[in-house]
C-alpha cells in the first residue's frame, strides 16, 4: 500500500504537507530557516513570476545557484508553475554550460547576480538577489496551472557526460520521483521532527523530506566533501538522516572513528554512488552502532533500483556488499547477450523496467532508443526497460549484487566517468592517436590515469608534455574547457603502443603498466624570514598528494598533481592543524598553486592590513571616537531592570547570553527582545531566530516551551548601521526599550583587530546610538581581556589602559576591540547616558547543572589531561572558573540597582585557584593524573591524542588541535579585584571551586561524551547517607515563599537541617536553584517553582506541586516581601503599590492556597514574616509599616477564628536584618534621612530562621503566637 498519494504530482504532495504541518520547520541553510507555511509562500511567489515567462507543461527552468535554501525554492517554484527544473552546475566549464543551455533551451534561468555573467546565451534571467527584477528577457501572459494528476509531464532534467562527446539531458517525469520516494519511504519513513541533510546527490534528496513533514537542511557546496566541515554541520544541526558516497564515508571515518559521539542524533545514513566494500561496512557498523546504514543502488535514468540494510545484507566472506533486494522485483531483469533472463546466481547485464524510468535523453532520440528498449517481459502497452550497462547477479537470498560494468564506467569519489568520453576528447584536442583511461589506486588516492600513444600526424594539436612526476599541467589546461575537473586524468603515461588481447584484439587494460611513482630530485623551493615558509606548505602538500616534497615547485598546481575536492579538504584540515588556525577551503580553492597557498596561509594568519598593524594606536584612537549625535535626552535617568517593561538583549545565541535570557525571564516581568544575527536581516528571519535560540537553550538545558511567550525575535546584524534595520524600525525600537543588556561579541583570541572590529566596536556604537535616542540604560558585558596579566594582585575596578599601551600590553584583537568598546560606553556615560560595565573573567559551567561552554580552552585542557592520564606541570598556573550562573545572576542583580555611582563592576574571581589543587580534586573524583612538564605533556598529547589516530571523535581534541596554548598564556592570567563590586552584589554568592563543583562539571562532561566514565559519586553518596537522618521536623513538608535570598533562603536551609522537605517559591528561578543545591545537601527532598505571590494561580501551583511531589503541606512560611524607604510627600506611588501587592495581597494568596488543606487534616502551622514595623510605625517606612500592620491584623484574626482546629499561627517580627530589601529603595531623600545605618550589629537571616525553627519545634499544644527578634542595640 502506498505511503504517499502516488496519483499526485510533486508540487501537490508538497502543498498537502504544507497544509498539514504549516508551523513545522521545512527548510534551512546556514543563513535562513523556513516553516512549511513560509516556504509555501516563497514558492508561490516565485512560481507566479515564472508563469510570466510562459513556464508551463514541459517548460524548463534553469537553476544556476549554489546548494542552499534558494535552490530548493527555485526547483519547487518551477514545478508549481507547471514546468520542470534544469540542473545547471556552477562547476560547469564555460563551454559545457553553454552547450547545456543551448541544448535544453530553458524558458528562464534562476541565478544570483554574481553568477549571471556565466550565462552567455540570450536567455531570460531571474536574479534572486535583485528583487522582482530581470537582467534580460521579457515576460509573457501567465500560462494555466498544471493538472495535479499529470504525472507524465517533466519534473527535472539533469545532464550527464556521454560517449559521443555531446552531454545527455536525462529527462525525468513526475511519476518517477513520486514512485521512487514512496518506495524509499517503505524502507525508511520520515516524519515531522526528522532533519535531513542534503549534500551529495542534492537534487534527488532535497524534495523527498518535504513530502513527509521533515526538515531539509541544505549543505553548502564547500562543506559537502569537507569531512570536518560536514561533520560539524551534521552535529550542530542535529541531523537525523543524510546520504554519503562510500568514499566520503571512508574519509569521514578515517578522521572520526568514533563519530557516533559527534552525531548522536543520526538515525539513518544512506550510501549511494559507489560499491560498498565489506571492510568499510564493518568500520561503519562499529563507528555508528545506533545508525541504520542503508546501501542503495540507483541510476539517473531509473531512480532507486535496490536497497538494503548493510547489517542484513553484508556477507563477511565477500569483498563487496550486495546492494539489497530489488525495490521493484517484477521489473528487474538480468539478461544474457541474447536478451534472455539468466538463472539465479549467474551474472548478466541488468535491465530495469516499470514506472521509475526517465522519459528520454533530451533531443537525442537515437540515444534514447538504444538505452530504453521495449520491455518484452511486461505486457503493458508501451512498456520499456532501461539498459543500465551494469553487470549483476541475483544471489540465492534474493539480494542483488553488482559485479562490474559492461561499458566500464568508472566511479570516482561519487562521480561517474565514462572513459570513452575522456579518451575521445584527449584524442580530439591533444596530439594523441590512441588512448586508454583507467582508474588507479583506492579511496582518496584513486586517480584517473591516461595511457596514450602520440599521434605523429597531429597537425595543430599540441603534444602532451609529461613531467617527471607523471603529471601534465599543460594537458589539464587544454582539457579544462571541455571536461569537468573530475574527468581530467591526474597521471599520464606515454606508450609506444597500447597492449591488446591475443584473442579479441581489443585493448587489454589489465596489461597496462602502473603509473610511475614520484622520486626525489632537486627542489626550487626557497625560504624567507617569515615563520611560515613555502617549505612548510610543501611538506603538507607532499603528504596529501602522496608525492615527494623535493619534486614540488612554487608554480605547481594542486590539481595538476592529482589533487581533487576531497584532497583539498584534507589539505585544509592538515594546514589548520599544523599552524593552529583554521584555513578555509574556499580560500585555498581561489588559487591552487603552491606559492598561492603560501600567501593564503599567511594572509589568514595576518588577517588585517599592514596599515592597521603599523599604526594601531592611531586606529584605536579613531575607533574610540563617539559621534556627536550619540547623546541622550537631557532628562535621562537610570532605569532598574526590575522596573523595565521591555529589555533588549544581544548575544542570546551564545553561552552567557543564553543564561542571561533565562535569568531575565525568571527575575523580571519584562518583555525580552533578542537581537539575533542574520547577514541581511528581514522580518521573515524571525522563525530562524527562534530556531537558533531554541537550539542553543536546548543544548544548555534551559529550554522550556513557555519561554517564548515573553520573548520577541529581532533579526539584525550588529556590524551593520542600525543593525540593518530601516530608520523607522530603529526609531520604533528605541522608543520601546528601557534597558539594553549588550552581551554579544565575536570572541576569538587568534583573529586580529581588523577581523573583530565590525561586531565588537561597530555593534557597541550602534547599541549606544539606539540607547541615546530613547534614554535607555545600557548594561555592557565586557571582559578582563581589556587589561594585561596582573600577577598576584588583581586590577581594581577603575583601572583603564592608556591607548598607547594597548598594542603592546593587549596582544590579541579581542581584548583590543573590547577596550575600544569600553571607551565608547564610558564616553556615552559622560554625556549623560546611564551605563554600567560588567567585566567578566573566564566563565565556566553552571554550578548546579554543569552545563558547559563547549569551546572553553580550560575545559579542553582538563578533559584531555584526564583522558591522557597526565596533567601539565606549569609553575604559577592559576585558573579562573567563574560559574556562568553566578555571572548572569550578578549582572542582573547589579542591573536592578540605581543608587550606585559606580560604573565598572568586576565579576571575575579575585582568587584564582591553583591548577594543582584542581587536579587533586579530580583525583578524589576518580580521575588520577601524573604530572609532566608542559613541553613533555604537549609532546605526549600530540602522540597519543592529537595525532590522526589518537583522539578523533573528541570535541576537546579539536579545540587543542586548533590552537595549543603556550606556557606564557597559561601563566598570564588577568585577575580582577572586586572590592568595590562585592558590596553591591553581596546577595549573589560566588560558588566555591571545590570537589563538589568539579563533580558537577565532570558529570556533565561525561554526559556529553568528553570523558569515558562518570566521576566517583562521593557527594551523591554523602547525600544518600543523610536521607535517613532524623530531626524534629522529619517527615513534614513546608512551603516557603520568597525563598530565593535573604530570610527565605535561610529558612529553607534551617528547616532542611531539621529533616523537613521543602517546596521553594520565588520569582528568580536561577537563585532558587542555588538554594535548592544547599537544601538537598542536607539529605531532604526539595522542589522549586517560579512563583510571583501576587499571582494567585502561581501561588496555588506552588502549593499543589508540594502536595503532589512531597506530600500534604504541614507548614507555610510566608517570607515574600518588599520594603522601600519613601517620603510620603514624594509620592512614590509605584513603590507603594508594589508594597501593598506583595506584602498584603501576596500573603492572602499564600493563605488561601494552604489553609483549606490544613483545616481538612486538623493540623498545620502558618508562619508569616511581619516586622517590628508592624508593631510601631517608622518614619520613611509609612506604607511598609501599614502593610505589616495588615499582616498582624490578618494573622490575629486567623488565630482567633481557627482556635481549636489544630492550626497554629505565628508572626515573626524581625528588626533590622541584612537582606536585599535594604538596597531596593530609590527615594534618595528618604534613604539619606531615615535609612542610614546606625553602626549597630544587625541581624543575619539565619538569626530570624532560627527563631522560626524554635516556633515550629514546640509541642502540638504549644503555640508561639509572636516572636519579636531585633538587634540588641536597636530596640523599638
Automatic annotation (TrEMBL):
Key words of the record: Oxidoreductase, Phosphopantetheine, Phosphoprotein
Biased composition (Polar residues): 518-529
Region of interest: Disordered: 506-530
Domain annotation Carrier: ranges: 528-605
GO BP annotation list: secondary metabolite biosynthetic process
Matches recorded under Gene3D superfamilies: 3.30.300.30, ACP-like, N-terminal domain of ligase-like, NAD(P)-binding Rossmann-like Domain
Signal sequence extent: none
Annotated InterPro entries: ACP-like_sf, AMP-bd_C_sf, AMP-binding_CS, AMP-dep_synth/lig_dom, ANL_N_sf, FAR_NAD-bd, KR_dom, NAD(P)-bd_dom_sf
SUPFAM superfamilies: Acetyl-CoA synthetase-like, ACP-like, NAD(P)-binding Rossmann-fold domains
GO molecular function, one term: oxidoreductase activity, acting on the CH-OH group of donors, NAD or NADP as acceptor
Family: Belongs to the NRP synthetase family.
Protein name, per record: Carrier domain-containing protein
Organism listed in the record: Penicillium canariense
Classification lineage: Eukaryota, Fungi, Dikarya, Ascomycota, Pezizomycotina
Amino acid at each position: 500500500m502506498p505511503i504517499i498519494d502516488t496519483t499526485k504530482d510533486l508540487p501537490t504532495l508538497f502543498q498537502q504537507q504544507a497544509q498539514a504541518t504549516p508551523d513545522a520547520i521545512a527548510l534551512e541553510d546556514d543563513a535562513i530557516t523556513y516553516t512549511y507555511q513560509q516556504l509555501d509562500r516563497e514558492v508561490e511567489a516565485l512560481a507566479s513570476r515564472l508563469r510570466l515567462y510562459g513556464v508551463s507543461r514541459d517548460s524548463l527552468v534553469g537553476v544556476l545557484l549554489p546548494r542552499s535554501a534558494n535552490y530548493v525554492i527555485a526547483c519547487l517554484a518551477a514545478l508549481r508553475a507547471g514546468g520542470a527544473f534544469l540542473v545547471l552546475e556552477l562547476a560547469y566549464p564555460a563551454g559545457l554550460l553553454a552547450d547545456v543551455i543551448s541544448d535544453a533551451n530553458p524558458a528562464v534561468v534562476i541565478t544570483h547576480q554574481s553568477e549571471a555573467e556565466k550565462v552567455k546565451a540570450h536567455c531570460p534571467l531571474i536574479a534572486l538577489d535583485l528583487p522582482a527584477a530581470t537582467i534580460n528577457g521579457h515576460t509573457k501572459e501567465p500560462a494555466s496551472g498544471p493538472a495535479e494528476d499529470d504525472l507524465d509531464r517533466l519534473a527535472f532534467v539533469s545532464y550527464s557526460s556521454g560517449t559521443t562527446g555531446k552531454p545527455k539531458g536525462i529527462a525525468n517525469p513526475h511519476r518517477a520521483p513520486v514512485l521512487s520516494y514512496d518506495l524509499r519511504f517503505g524502507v525508511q519513513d520520515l516524519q515531522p521532527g526528522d532533519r535531513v541533510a542534503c549534500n551529495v546527490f542534492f537534487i534527488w534528496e532535497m524534495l523527498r523530506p518535504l513530502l513527509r513533514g521533515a526538515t531539509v537542511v541544505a549543505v553548502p557546496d564547500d562543506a559537502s566533501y569537507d569531512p570536518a566541515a560536514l561533520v560539524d554541520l551534521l552535529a550542530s544541526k542535529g541531523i537525523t538522516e543524510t546520504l554519503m558516497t562510500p568514499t566520503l564515508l571512508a574519509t569521514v571515518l578515517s578522521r572520526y572513528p568514533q563519530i557516533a559521539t559527534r552525531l548522536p542524533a543520526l538515525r539513518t545514513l544512506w550510501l549511494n554512488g559507489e560499491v560498498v566494500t565489506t571492510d568499510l561496512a564493518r568500520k561503519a557498523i562499529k563507528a555508528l552502532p545506533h545508525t541504520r546504514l542503508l546501501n542503495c543502488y540507483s541510476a539517473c535514468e531509473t531512480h532507486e533500483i535496490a536497497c538494503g540494510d548493510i547489517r542484513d545484507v553484508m556477507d563477511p566472506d565477500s569483498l563487496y556488499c550486495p546492494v539489497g533486494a530489488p525495490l521493484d522485483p517484477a521489473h528487474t531483469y538480468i539478461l544474457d547477450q541474447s536478451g534472455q533472463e539468466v538463472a539465479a546466481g549467474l551474472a548478466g547485464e541488468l535491465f530495469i523496467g516499470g514506472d521509475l524510468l526517465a522519459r528520454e535523453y533530451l533531443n537525442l532520440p537515437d540515444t534514447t532508443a538504444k538505452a530504453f528498449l521495449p520491455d518484452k517481459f511486461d505486457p503493458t502497452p508501451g512498456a520499456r526497460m532501461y539498459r543500465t550497462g551494469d553487470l549483476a547477479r541475483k544471489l540465492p537470498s534474493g539480494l542483488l549484487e553488482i559485479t562490474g560494468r559492461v561499458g566500464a564506467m568508472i566511479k570516482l569519489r561519487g562521480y561517474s566517468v565514462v572513459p570513452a568520453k575522456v579518451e575521445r576528447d584527449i584524442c580530439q584536442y591533444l596530439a594523441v592517436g590512441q588512448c586508454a583511461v583507467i582508474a588507479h589506486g583506492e579511496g582518496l588516492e584513486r586517480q584517473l590515469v591516461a595511457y596514450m600513444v602520440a599521434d605523429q600526424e597531429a597537425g595543430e594539436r599540441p603534444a602532451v608534455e609529461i613531467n617527471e612526476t607523471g603529471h601534465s599541467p599543460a594537458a589539464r589546461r587544454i582539457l579544462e574547457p571541455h571536461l569537468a575537473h573530475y574527468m581530467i586524468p591526474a597521471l599520464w603515461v606515454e606508450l609506444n603502443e597500447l597492449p591488446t588481447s591475443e584473442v579479441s584484439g581489443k585493448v587489454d587494460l589489465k596489461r597496462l603498466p602502473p603509473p610511475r611513482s614520484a622520486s626525489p630530485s632537486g627542489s626550487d623551493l626557497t625560504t624567507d624570514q617569515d615563520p611560515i615558509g613555502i617549505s612548510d606548505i610543501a611538506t603538507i602538500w607532499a603528504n596529501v598528494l602522496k608525492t615527494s616534497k623535493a619534486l614540488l615547485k612554487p608554480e605547481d598546481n594542486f590539481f595538476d598533481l592529482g589533487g581533487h575536492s576531497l584532497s583539498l579538504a584534507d589539505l585544509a584540515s592538515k594546514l589548520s592543524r599544523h599552524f593552529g588556525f583554521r584555513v578555509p577551503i574556499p580560500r585555498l580553492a581561489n588559487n591552487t598553486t603552491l606559492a598561492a597557498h603560501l600567501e593564503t596561509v599567511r594572509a589568514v594568519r595576518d588577517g588585517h592590513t599592514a596599515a592597521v598593524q603599523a599604526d594601531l594606536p592611531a586606529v584605536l584612537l579613531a575607533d574610540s571616537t563617539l559621534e556627536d549625535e550619540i547623546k541622550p535626552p537631557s532628562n535621562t535617568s537610570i532605569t532598574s531592570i526590575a522596573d523595565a517593561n521591555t529589555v533588549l538583549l544581544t548575544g542570546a545565541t551564545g553561552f552567557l547570553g543564553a543564561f542571561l535570557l533565562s535569568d531575565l525571564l525568571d527575575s523580571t516581568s519584562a518583555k525580552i527582545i533578542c537581537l539575533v544575527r542574520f547577514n541581511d536581516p528581514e522580518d521573515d528571519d524571525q522563525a530562524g531566530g527562534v530556531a537558533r535560540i531554541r537550539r542553543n537553550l536546548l543544548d544548555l538545558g534551559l529550554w522550556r516551551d513557555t519561554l517564548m511567550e515573553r520573548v520577541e525575535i529581532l533579526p539584525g546584524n550588529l556590524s551593520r548601521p542600525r543593525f540593518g534595520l530601516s530608520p523607522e524600525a530603529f526609531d520604533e525600537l528605541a522608543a520601546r526599550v528601557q534597558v539594553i543588556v549588550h552581551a554579544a561579541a565575536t570572541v576569538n583570541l587568534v583573529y586580529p583587530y581588523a577581523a573583530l572590529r565590525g561586531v565588537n566596536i561597530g555593534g557597541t556604537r550602534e547599541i549606544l546610538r539606539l540607547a541615546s535616542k530613547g534614554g535607555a540604560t545600557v548594561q555592557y558585558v565586557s571582559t578582563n581581556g581589556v587589561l594585561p596579566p596582573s600577577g598576584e594582585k588583581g586590577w581594581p575596578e577603575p583601572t583603564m589602559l592608556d591607548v598607547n599601551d594597548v598594542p603592546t600590553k593587549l596582544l590579541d584583537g579581542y581584548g583590543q576591540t573590547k577596550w575600544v568598546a569600553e571607551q565608547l560606553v564610558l564616553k556615552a556615560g559622560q554625556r549623560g547616558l546611564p551605563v554600567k560595565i560588567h567585566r567578566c573573567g573566564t566563565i565556566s559551567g553552571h554550578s548546579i547543572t554543569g552545563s558547559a561552554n563547549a569551546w572553553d580552552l580550560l575545559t579542553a585542557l582538563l578533559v584531555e589531561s584526564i583522558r591522557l592520564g597526565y596533567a601539565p606541570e606549569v609553575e604559577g598556573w592559576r585558573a579562573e572558573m567563574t560559574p556562568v550562573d553566578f555571572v548572569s545572576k550578578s549582572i542582573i542583580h547589579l542591573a536592578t540597582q540605581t543608587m550606585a555611582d559606580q560604573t565598572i563592576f568586576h565579576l571575575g574571581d579575585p582568587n584564582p585557584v591553583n591548577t594543582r589543587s584542581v587536579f587533586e580534586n579530580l583525583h578524589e573524583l576518580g580521575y588520577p593524573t601524573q604530572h609532566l612538564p608542559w613541553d613533555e605533556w604537549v609532546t605526549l598529547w600530540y602522540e597519543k591524542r592529537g595525532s590522526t589516530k589518537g583522539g578523533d571523535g573528541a570535541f576537546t581534541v579539536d579545540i587543542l588541535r586548533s590552537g595549543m596554548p603556550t606556557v606564557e598564556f597559561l601563566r598570564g592570567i588577568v585577575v580582577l579585584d572586586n572590592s568595590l563590586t562585592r558590596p553591591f552584589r553581596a546577595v549573589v554568592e560566588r560558588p566555591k571551586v571545590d570537589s563538589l563543583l568539579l563533580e558537577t562539571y565532570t558529570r556533565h562532561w561525561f554526559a556529553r561524551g568528553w570523558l569515558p566514565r562518570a566521576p566517583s559519586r562521593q557527594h551523591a553518596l554523602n547525600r544518600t547517607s543523610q536521607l535517613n537522618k532524623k530531626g524534629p521536623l522529619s517527615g513534614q513538608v513546608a512551603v516557603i515563599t520568597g525563598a530565593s535570598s535573604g530570610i527565605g533562603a535561610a529558612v529553607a536551609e534551617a528547616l532542611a537541617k531539621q529533616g523537613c522537605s521543602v517546596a521553594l517559591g520565588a520569582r528568580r528561578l536561577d537563585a532558587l536553584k542555588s538554594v535548592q543545591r544547599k537544601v538537598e545537601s542536607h539529605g531532604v527532598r526539595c522542589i522549586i517553582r517560579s512563583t510571583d505571590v501576587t499571582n494567585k494561580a502561581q501561588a496555588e501551583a506552588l502549593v499543589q506541586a508540594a502536595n503532589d511531589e512531597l506530600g500534604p503541606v504541614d507548614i507555610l512560611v510566608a517570607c515574600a516581601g518588599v520594603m522601600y524607604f519613601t517620603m510620603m510627600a514624594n509620592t512614590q506611588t509605584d513603590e507603594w503599590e508594589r508594597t501593598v501587592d506583595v506584602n498584603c495581597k501576596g500573603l492572602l494568596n499564600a493563605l488561601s492556597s494552604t489553609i483549606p488543606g490544613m483545616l481538612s487534616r486538623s493540623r498545620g502551622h502558618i508562619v508569616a514574616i511581619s516586622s517590628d514595623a508592624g508593631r510601631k510605625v517608622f518614619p520613611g517606612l509609612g506604607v511598609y509599616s501599614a502593610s505589616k500592620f495588615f499582616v498582624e491584623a490578618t494573622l490575629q484574626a486567623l488565630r482567633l477564628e481557627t482556635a481549636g482546629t489544630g492550626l497554629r499561627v505565628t508572626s515573626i517580627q524581625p528588626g533590622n536584618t541584612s537582606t536585599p530589601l535594604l538596597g531596593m529603595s530609590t527615594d534618595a531623600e528618604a534613604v539619606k534621612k531615615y535609612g542610614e545605618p546606625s553602626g549597630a550589629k544587625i541581624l543575619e537571616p539565619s538569626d530570624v530562621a532560627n527563631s522560626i525553627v524554635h516556633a515550629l519545634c514546640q509541642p502540638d499544644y504549644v503555640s508561639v503566637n509572636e516572636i519579636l527578634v531585633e538587634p540588641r542595640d536597636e530596640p523599638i
